[in-house]
Design a protein that fits this description.
heterodimer; A: 12 strands; 34% helix; B: alpha/beta; Rossmann fold; 11 helices
């Protein structure tokens, strides 16, 4: 059994403009000790989905199920969620400065976190553990820096502090929501390295939420591609990059500058993502898809196995056969749609 | 280096870099450009004695019609340099020549005719457009300011521009909030192009956009360059984007240019250890390449530009640092048998195919100014 099993998760928000359907029927598994990357553009629902699983979404209508280590998290009471968060599921976010309290030393915050979950730990033991954690994530002179305040650390170092705190109680799952997006590339490489090392050492499973396909290629075992609140494609890392099926995945990879010759024209996806209030009737990607045909605009394709590979699923009506695909391709002159 | 250095003091090498001569006269020439900002001292009664040396002794040329990429990490001074070129900042020292004319000390009024020739596109498509004004009047502003045309003619010109950048001209009366991030970047571009500038400085124009939209904007900028014969200075922290759009690339670190070369040359014959580290840290969306590539993990982070390290500013993080790096600030010059267009500021540049992941710094602890290195042990070599 997988460590985390999410089934048909739906999250809706009521807003003055209408109902925002942020997550629409999301299902995925995370196995112990592996990394699942969730990729998507802004508004694809990737962050909302994981926040909902850990009970951090407020004012939303939620349905579906998320079973973590045998226990249901959706609809669980606050006390249960509080026990799970931190102790069993650690979390790190994009902006480490706003996730750390500016008035307390980082050591105090880690100690507080350890003691909140395990009152029997002595203060000294918790402090020793905090110092050990800080050195694990590569903070030099951890014993002295433990008494520093968050503002005394640089961006990359703060993110390491966040990782140390998330790992403090040896969680089985770490949810990292755009952990390196705010960091420079050389620092990003350091932080990703820390995450990789900790995973090897402690066997932690990681859900890595990112928009950066480069980070996905480096870090993931399995990948879920989200668009407009739905899973478009799900596959192991190599399969996704080398044998993807969904036109959206194809479009994302093709629009990367590295994919073409320098100076050549890039191949963007025309248009922009749909409004989550007024979603298209059929496949949400159909209005931007170069292969779209009538059925795509009328019916939502289910997430189904493709290429006879049970690990590989794609939500697309399009046949997997190359010739058929090509014949259906609409040659648009990069109709970069407006409004 | 003491903390009380005034602006513009340049220790060590003051060799005039061999300026590239390719027959074409450069459109823009920077000579020893420096910009420092006074910072508030933490001490109560001393003020104005500390400076952030954001750009320090930068010399560069930009040829007409080319795209010069400017890359570097946060705080390396790339945006400050851009703003100096557009004369949004006054220079601390040095000179800027645009189209043969020295513009380094022009007054605001003196700059005005040049404003139509040098334009900027900014990173944040949300912050750079006034939310209370209609798109048509935002794009039409340059015409109004420079007193061009009647109202009706102006509207027609604005709508032409909107069409050129891929916006629907019928949306003339909409507000910025009605547009997506990518479309706002098109609005910003239309505004920048209104007066047919010769040079456009693009400061992280696609960094805030999703990849699929990013590609649309990059293509648009390329098309506009071809159509209008624009010269671009393209600033980004994303090397894959810069590689794609640039003819030449200049790499900045702590206010200095550490390497400048034609794009392919920079990637294939990387000379500066910092450039190599940047390239190796760039995540590539290809699992095979990701699994097999050379990984150079730099120790620590970029030091404070208020009190930069002595000698070569990269020596505190450089795997190839030697004792002389601590003392000597290397000049930007040709190394090995590189062409004149490839210049590197390094005392121990990389040979072709040199494996830098094996290098370890060889400097005495005491030679490093520890105070200037935040968050790191001075000599922890290699990976962490």
């Amino acid at each position: 059994m997988a460590l985390l099993e999410v089934r048909d998760l739906q999250v809706e928000f009521d807003t003055p403009d209408g109902v925002v359907r942020a997550v629409r029927g999301l299902s995925f598994d995370v196995a112990k000790g592996t990394t699942l990357a969730i990729v998507g553009e802004s508004g694809s629902g990737k962050s909302v989905a994981t926040q909902t699983i850990t009970g951090l979404t407020r004012g939303a209508r939620i349905s579906g199920s998320a079973v973590f280590d045998g226990a249901e998290l959706i609809g669980a009471d606050a006390a249960t969620l509080r026990r799970v968060r931190g102790a069993e599921i650690g979390m790190i976010f994009q902006d480490p400065l706003s996730s750390l309290h500016p008035y307390y030393t980082v050591g105090w915050q880690i100690v507080e976190m350890i003691k909140a979950h395990d009152r029997s730990t002595s203060k000294d033991a918790a402090r020793r553990r905090a110092a050990h954690l800080l050195s694990l994530v590569g903070i030099p002179r951890a014993e002295s820096r433990i008494d520093d305040y968050p503002h005394q650390f640089s961006g990359g170092m703060r993110q390491r502090v966040m990782i140390a705190m998330a790992m403090a109680l040896d969680p089985a799952l770490l949810i990292a929501d755009e952990p390196t997006t705010a960091l420079d590339v050389t620092v990003q490489a350091q932080v990703l390295g820390v995450m990789r090392t900790l995973q090897q050492e402690f066997g932690t499973a990681i859900i890595l939420i990112t928009h950066d396909l480069g980070v996905v290629a480096e870090m993931s075992d399995e990948v879920v591609v989200m668009y407009a609140g739905k899973v478009m494609e799900r596959a192991p890392r190599r399969t996704l990059f080398y044998r993807h099926h969904h036109p959206y995945t194809e479009g994302l990879l093709a629009s990367l500058p590295a994919s073409g010759e320098p100076g050549a024209r890039l191949t963007p996806i025309a248009g922009s993502p749909p409004s989550l209030i007024r979603l298209p009737q059929g496949c949400p990607f159909a209005p931007r898809c170069r292969y779209a045909f009538d059925k795509c605009k009328a019916e939502v394709p289910p997430l189904a196995t493709v290429y006879q590979d049970e690990n590989h699923q794609s939500a697309c009506w399009l046949s997997a056969e190359e010739q058929v695909r090509e014949s259906q391709r609409v040659v648009t002159d990069e109709q970069e749609a407006t409004a | 280096m003491s903390t009380s250095d005034g602006p513009g003091t340049t220790p060590g090498a003051v060799v005039v870099p061999a300026l590239v001569s390719t027959g074409d006269d450069p459109l823009l020439r920077l000579e020893h450009v420096s910009k420092s900002f006074p910072v508030q001292s933490s001490k109560l009664f001393s003020r104005g004695h500390e400076f952030v040396h954001a750009v320090d002794d930068v010399s560069l040329e930009v040829l007409p019609g080319e795209t010069l990429g400017l890359v570097g990490e946060t705080g390396c001074g790339k945006s400050t340099l851009a703003r100096c070129i557009a004369r949004l900042y006054d220079l601390t020292s040095g000179s800027i020549t645009f189209d043969g004319k020295d513009i380094s000390h022009l007054s605001r009024r003196g700059m005005r005719p040049l404003r139509s020739e040098i334009q900027m596109i900014f990173q944040d498509p949300y912050g750079s457009l006034n939310p209370r004004r209609r798109v048509g009047s935002i794009i039409g502003d340059p015409f109004a300011i420079h007193g061009i045309d009647s109202r009706a003619e102006r509207k027609k010109k604005v709508q032409d521009l909107m069409e050129r950048v891929g916006l629907n001209p019928e949306h003339y009366n909409r507000f910025p909030a009605d547009f997506s991030g990518g479309q706002r970047q098109r609005i910003g571009t239309a505004r920048a192009l209104a007066l047919r500038p010769r040079m456009v400085i693009c400061d992280e124009p696609v960094s805030a956009l999703d990849v699929s939209v990013q590609a649309q904007i990059i293509n648009m900028l390329k098309d506009l360059q071809d159509d209008f014969g624009l010269t671009y200075i393209f600033i980004s922290h994303d090397l894959s984007v810069v590689r794609h759009v640039s003819d030449r690339i200049a790499v900045m670190y702590l206010g200095h240019i550490v390497e400048v070369a034609p794009t392919a040359e920079l990637f294939e014959h990387t000379r500066h250890p910092y450039t190599r580290a940047l390239l190796s840290a760039l995540p590539v969306a290809d699992p095979d390449a990701a699994d097999n590539r050379e990984r150079i993990l730099l120790v620590g982070e970029i030091p404070s530009p208020t009190n930069p390290p002595s000698g070569c500013r990269f020596h505190t993080r450089c795997p190839k640092a030697r004792a002389d790096c601590v003392r000597t600030d290397p000049a930007l010059e040709r190394v090995f048998d590189d062409g004149v267009e490839h210049q590197t500021a390094c005392l121990h540049p990389l040979a072709i195919d040199e494996d830098m992941s094996l290098s370890r710094p060889q400097i005495e602890d005491s030679e490093i100014d520890v105070a200037s290195i935040p968050d790191q042990e001075p000599t922890t070599g290699g990976s962490q």
